Amino acid sequence: MIRIAIQSKGRLSEESLALLAEIGIKIDDSRRKFLAQTPDFPLELLYMRDDDIPQVVAAGTADLGIVGLNEVEERGFPLQVVRKLGFGACRISLAIPKAVEYDGLAWFEGKRIATSYPGILKKYLADNKINAKVEVITGSVEIAPAAGIADAIFDIVSSGGTLVSNGLKEVEKVFFSEAVLVSAGPLADEKQALLDEILFRLDSAVVSRKKKYLLMNIPESSLDEAVRILPAMRSPTLMPLTAKGWYSMHSVVEESQLWDKIRQLKAIGAEGILVLNIDKIIP
Ligand code: ATP
Ligand code: MG
Q1: CB 194 near ligand 1, within 6 Å
Q2: How far, in Å, from the CA of 157 to the mean position of ligand 2?
Q3: Per the CB 3.0–4.6 Å rule, which of 33, 123, 125, 233 could disulfide with 130?
Q4: Measured from the CB, is residue 93 less than 6 Å from ligand 1?
Q5: Identical topology for domains 2-87+179-207 and 90-177
Q6: Residues near 122 by Cβ (< 8 Å), separated by ≥ 6?
Q7: For 222-246, how does the pLDDT look when each residue is reduced to its tens digit (9 = 90+)?
Q8: Pick the CATH number of 90-177 from 3.30.310.250, 1.10.357.10, 3.40.190.10, 3.40.50.300
């Protein structure tokens, strides 16, 4: 049995559950419970506030955690990032009132900065040799300047809309975060085997997300050229069509190259091109 801590309610919870579902681990939505099991896999889910996840993993109460890298960094427990998960992207930035002129980091010298991330902020200020007063606020940090509690804020930004609507502007992007899978280090054999299985599934899900399955008809005279355009895991699959001189060709392409490949294939006479999503790729 392996135990994973995930956020119970918040920005990461839906996507954490969706990711587990994507790798075949479905949890009946019993989020009111603190601990949930799954029929598909020897796994227990521990639902908690995201702030507590690093500590719970460091203490061994959970073997793994899905949490923002910002919380991992802020809490400072010695954890290993096992995988970056590609969702929950945000950054922690310094922001000041829009009307104030900004002339570089030295502006912050002697100023008061409100934040819920004092650990990351103090390290950044020390690294840049800035003396500023850090005011720890847990609630709505963005109202601190208007409320007269601080001159600036250090807070999470994703689109920047919240800053603008509070009359602030982002002046320094300090820390970039996304959701990560963390552990406290080596696991016992049985748990490590389960983690390996989870990672195997996760990696094939991530790989397949960036790829497309391509099918098309190719005239025989263009086959060599088509194979050159479309390298596949071994080589593209070819099947003769009943129409003489034509083949059906199948291959897998990187999504980023899709339109370029299609353009090249059309230029050598490919017809009836189909592009399909891939559910899983098991190399
Ligand atoms: P909890 O009740 O679990 O403590 P919370 O209010 O601290 O929740 P959320 O707002 O749900 O946290 O955010 C969880 C994580 O989502 C953040 O720590 C961060 O990693 C990520 N995130 C992504 N975009 C944003 C954003 N725009 N604002 C806040 N967090 C974001
Ligand atoms: Mg929190």
Answers
A1: no
A2: 15
A3: 125
A4: no
A5: yes
A6: 134
A7: 999 998 898 766 778 899 999 999 9
A8: 3.40.190.10
